[in-house]
Amino acid sequence: MPDVQSMVAEFVNKLRKRKIEGSQATAKCTVELLRSVISHQRVPHANQAAALIDAVKAVGQQLVAANPVELAVGNVVRRVLHIIREEDLSLTTAAMAGLDLLDASDDDDIDNCKGIGYPAMSAAVVAAAARSTLRPPSLQTLLEGTPESATVPYTSSSGADSESKSKSADKSSLTRKLKHDVIEGVNQLIHEISGCHEQIAEQAIEHIHQNEVILTLGSSRTVLEFLCAAKEKKRSFRVFVAEGAPRYQGHLLAKELVARGLQTTVITDSAVFAMISRVNMVIIGAHAVMANGGVIGPVGVNMAALAAKKHAVPFVVLAGSHKLCPLYPHNPEVLLNELRSPSELLDFGEFSDCLDFGAGSGSLQVVNPTFDYVPPNLVSLFITDTGGHNPSYMYRLIADYYSADDLVM
Amino acid sequence: MGAQKKGGGGARVSEDAEEQSRQRLQAILLADSFATKFRPVTLERPKVLLPIVNVPMIDYTLAWLEYAGIEEVFVFCCAHSTQIIEYLEKSEWYSHPNLVVRTIESHKSISAGDALRYMYEQQTETSQIQGDFVLVSGDTVSNMPLADLIQEHRDRKKKDEKAIMTMVIKQSKSSSLTHQSRLGTDQLFIAVDPLTKQLLHYEEDKIDHPSGSVCLDKSLLESNPSVLVCNDMQDCYIDICSPEVLSLFEDNFDYQHLRRHFVKGVLVDDIMGYKIFTHEIHSSYAARIDNFRSYDTVSKDIIQRWTYPYVPDINFSGNRPLRLGRQGIYRACDAVLSRSADVGASSVIGYGTKIGDGDKILNSVIGNGCCIGSNVVIEGSYIWNNVTIEDGCEIRNAIVCDGVKIRAGAVLQPGVVLSFNVVVGRDFVVPAYSKVSLLQQPTTEDSDDELEYADSSSATADQLSGLNLQMESKASELGPDGAGYIWEVCEGAHDEEWKHSVAPIPEDKLAEITQAIDDDDTDDESVVPTSGELKSDADSINTDMNDPNDDYDYFEKEVEGTVLRAVEENIKVDLVTLEINGLRLSYNMESADCAGATFYSMMKLAVDTPHNSASELYKNAASIITKWKELLGFYVKKIDEQIEVIMKFEEMCQESPKELGPLFTQILHLLYDKDVLQEDAILRWAEEKAGADEADKVYLKQCDTFIQWLKEASEEEDEDDEDEEEDD
């Protein structure tokens, strides 16, 4: 499949050269690429799921290696793998059960009517179905009761999800169905990723109150939508934007906010501590959320979080579900940071005489990290597209989205 | 799913159509520097394949061009073209989705000018270059965006037909002491129109001939109300060219160097009113690796991440990314470091490299598959791949190429360059700035900067075949168990040694220069307002005095060559005079100098012709003088010039008293007979010499009788004249 391969190569190239920025854009590109990989993958009769998983894994490894800092790529690859495993499981159980599908198809219709609003819900249902087999036994699964009694009702509902085609339960249609179902699932994931802003923004009204002062740092599309959603609901509040040196993306955010009619004040990053006592809530967008509830965000975020802690100001992190990363930050395999070019900090020409290593005098070194890590104890609340969560709850969400087999790719 | 596929395909088609509507972005990459600065390393491998921070230079250039949106690159290969093509075939560049890489081979080109002329000839057949193109060399490291710049160039071209080139410059302060940039190149003075950014003046302050002043043409100021003169700019050697540039090179077949000839030609000679514009880059990086010093500087810039995203921890061209740790240490995941090894800041350690106990590594780059023993000190050095360093070695500011073995206890002093597979013997100390290779230094004929190793690919093969024999005989140059030749520094390159080496400029040298400047200041503080920037070079006073002599030597050599050729090929006197006149103008000499030089070369010719006895030599000289007296006569019209000839002759006789000495009088007489010299000249010479030291009077005494005879003759003549007058 040369065109898939060239697409992969092109995307890998883009990732390598850091041409794509922002986790949402990257996640979307990744999942679209994986969809075409799956749709072009020829599946053998036996063990089709394994073939798909291998294909996705192979591409996924390339993508992750191309830009290990962009954790969203790995997250999405793992999500897709999880979808394949789930669909495979539900199909086999459906084939085994092989009955009472008619009433279930009603359920399915309802799902379709509701449209995009509940993809996460259906995924959650499927995940619940697969829970007993996909996850290592935990206290909860043990308490949930006997596996047999748990599986049967779930099977019926997941069979519903996979539409009424499984009526003819013979092998050949199953082959096609698995791929079809997986692509369905991936499409839902695409919906979920592209709709995450609205999902999160919908909750804005519950968190932002009248006459509050909100502080944010750097630029995040999620934060922008979140604040604007609150504004549209006739909440009046003020926003402080820390500029986010050295890339000054806060300036862009401030511009956007003013254009949408919000009361905006730009401050320097170093003024955050001075201003925090006036602030009612800090809202930032995350680059990635780690499995322990720690947050990777634009540089300077940890300082803001510490300041918020000191003044007991709630520190709220907005993150789409594609930003949930099943890895732990102390894992050496996880590259947490990237050092960018010093030219963002200072002008090469002005300082070129200090950079002269040949002269033997002291030389100037410049460090320009992109990200900051905020430990979970500084985070008050995560707002994801499935609602608000405590940092300590993150591992539960992650368990729903990813299967344990895929953590190490 | 079918629908989705179609949708995707459709989008691509429309994109393609868009792309076709605009011109393809093309680049010419010169994979040959046409210089010898990287010798002896470049004898065995082309410069563009030399690793810089463990990745070949050409990969940086290609990755950047690809990133900047260039769609087609013509790689012009010259020296070692097979190696370059092999490398590209193995790499991923040939199968790159966005970038078409084509190679062009030409072994005849010996300069950038030749390369472009070759491109032009190809062009007429195939018309590969469709429009504006980017001209870079394969040793450029940059991350600047190009698309906008090319657009800017095209827009300007549309408005002004004559704007044929846009040159990229970047601010970079040069050292006030050594007058060289960070990259080790000469300080650059440029004048730019601040509004249009047109380049008005371009001058490299040559290290060997510091001019001390920058001359701007007055007409520049007349036609441009404001001119910005700056000396803190660095030429990135990245040019956006219109097709006219190629045809200009074709028309002016003597253009060799892009800057020294082409830019100068366009600016000074004002060819067809063509204009060059500049573009200054601020936030992005661009530099060309021109010499060992810039190799060092650019390596450090890469490690300091100025070239982001072309840094070692990002896989930008199929290289295996290294892991970036604290303090800017890049380390491969499978590198083995001893616990007691001390790896300092800004170091790079490649794949499969082993570092032993107690090693100290600072500011250095170590390649793949190296094996480093214990208690080794490596500081500011560049160790390439598969190098073995045994226990207790000390390496400071050196470049060590692939496959080198350094035996226990050896020391490399700053500035050393060890070429491929050299073996340094046990406890041997390689002296500072020495260049060591398994290949012998080529004869000094081609020490000329421009005449590069175009033929070296064939020469190398020859040398390699004869290598084993040579090695055995002279292996002891690097100690008893070593292998390699220490190259001698070519004449006149002593300066370059410390200016262009990887080692930082030593303290004492800096002190020396500072001292010189201080002296200078006290000398001319009253005369020149010390603006600092336009001030004359540190040692300008000394060199100014030496300069004429140097020039005269060159001039003499050239004249000698001309006369020799004239004699051999029997060229007409008129043509020879024309040539010598040309030389005279280009070296700014007086006609007396011409006379001296011509006579000198004629006599030299006579001496060089095989002869057995003095009489035979005389015969030789006589025949040459008889034959070419017209040529000589052309320059010796005045008495002064004739005296110059005699002095020159005397000088020659002093140099070879055995051969020419005894013939002094005879030849002088001959010259008198042939009407080359007049008696006045000889007599005046005798008068002048009369007051000289005894030692200087040898030849005067020798021809005493001749002069006496001349004197008498002239007196007689005078008398005759008087008689005649009386007769009237």
From TrEMBL, chain A:
Signal peptide positions on this chain: none
Ranges that cross the membrane: none
InterPro entries xrefs: eIF2B_beta_subunit (IPR051855), IF-2B-related (IPR000649), IF_2B-like_C (IPR042529), NagB/RpiA_transferase-like (IPR037171)
Keyword match Cell division: no
Domain of life: Eukaryota
Ranges annotated as biased composition (Polar residues): 138-155
Record keywords: Cytoplasm, Initiation factor, Protein biosynthesis
Location of the region described as Disordered in the Swiss-Prot/TrEMBL record: 138-173
SUPFAM superfamilies hit by this protein: NagB/RpiA/CoA transferase-like
Subcellular location: Cytoplasm, Cytosol
Subunit structure: Component of the translation initiation factor 2B (eIF2B) complex which is a heterodecamer of two sets of five different subunits: alpha, beta, gamma, delta and epsilon. Subunits alpha, beta and delta comprise a regulatory subcomplex and subunits epsilon and gamma comprise a catalytic subcomplex. Within the complex, the hexameric regulatory complex resides at the center, with the two heterodimeric catalytic subcomplexes bound on opposite sides.
Family: Belongs to the eIF-2B alpha/beta/delta subunits family.
Protein name: Translation initiation factor eIF2B subunit beta
Organism: Camelina sativa (False flax)
TrEMBL record, chain B:
Listed Gene3D superfamilies: 1.25.40.180, Hexapeptide repeat proteins, Spore Coat Polysaccharide Biosynthesis Protein SpsA, Chain A
InterPro entries hit by this protein: ARM-type_fold (IPR016024), eIF-2B_epsilon_N (IPR035543), eIF2B_epsilon (IPR051956), LbH_EIF2B3/5 (IPR056764), NTP_transferase_dom (IPR005835), Nucleotide-diphossugar_trans (IPR029044), Trimer_LpxA-like_sf (IPR011004), W2_domain (IPR003307)
Start and end residues of each W2 domain: 549-720
Top-level division of the source organism's lineage: Eukaryota
Cellular location(s): Cytoplasm, Cytosol
SMART domains reported for this sequence: eIF5C
Keyword Repeat part of the UniProt annotation: no
Keywords of the record: Cytoplasm, Initiation factor, Protein biosynthesis
Complexes and interactors: Component of the translation initiation factor 2B (eIF2B) complex which is a heterodecamer of two sets of five different subunits: alpha, beta, gamma, delta and epsilon. Subunits alpha, beta and delta comprise a regulatory subcomplex and subunits epsilon and gamma comprise a catalytic subcomplex. Within the complex, the hexameric regulatory complex resides at the center, with the two heterodimeric catalytic subcomplexes bound on opposite sides.
Protein name as it appears in the record: Translation initiation factor eIF2B subunit epsilon
Species of origin: Camelina sativa
